[in-house]
Amino acid sequence: MATNIFEKDAIKNVQRYLRQLSFHDDTITPVPIDGVWADQTRRALMQFQRAQGLPVTGTVDNNTWAILKQKYDESVALNSPPLKLDLFPRNIYGAEYEISLGESGFLVDTVQYLLGELGRLYSFPEYAPSGVYDEATAALVRDFQTKNKISATGKVGRETWDAMAAQHNLLLESEE
């Protein structure tokens, strides 16, 4: 029996969703995304149904579809690569604001994340983000600033943030 194009697309979607979930759930067998409803796809669907407490039928009813789509969307949101960073948030902190020793919060978490990511480029020493802008963070910032011909203050203001964000965005583009 031939599969029409709409059935094939629907099967590919189920396979795509199961495949995404299999990356982060060892109980689901990875499946090819080929639009063919074969034993491997049916088996992975049954594994998903079992894990979700659904009736294990190996077929996609409305309830299975809704939960499969929901779990897929959650997995994509949770496991997607980071979004590109924008320029320093001047509208909140002002153009002359600098992040410095003792601070914590979103900006510090972001700077520490960036240092971890950019460490691959700059061969920074092993670094464990603390959530606080501490001396280890300031030392890496000074290293980054020196390598980028920015005044090595160890504080992150607009110029340092923008340079870090731009380089991070280039790293993301090179990985695509």
Keywords:
176 residues, 0% strand, Muramoyl-pentapeptide Carboxypeptidase, domain 1, 7 helices, single chain, mainly alpha
What secondary-structure arrangement, pairings included, does this model have?
Elements: H1 5-24, H2 39-51, H3 62-79, H4 90-93, H5 106-122, H6 135-147, H7 158-175
Helix pairs in contact: 1-3, 5-6, 5-7
Shape: elongated
Proportion of strand residues: under 5%
Counting structural domains, the number is: 2
CATH architectural category of the largest domain: Orthogonal Bundle
Please tell me how large the radius of gyration is. Answer: 23 Å
Explain the overall architecture.
The chain is an all-alpha fold. The chain has two domains: 5-79, no CATH class; 90-175, PGBD-like superfamily/PGBD (Muramoyl-pentapeptide Carboxypeptidase, domain 1, Orthogonal Bundle). The chain is 59% helix and 0% strand. The protein contains seven helices and no strands. The protein has helices at residues 5-24, 39-51, 62-79, 90-93, 106-122, 135-147, 158-175. Helix 5 (106-122) crosses helix 7 (158-175). The longest helix is centred in the first third of the chain and has 20 residues, at 5-24. It is elongated and about 65 Å long. The protein starts with a helix and ends with a helix. The mean pLDDT is 85.
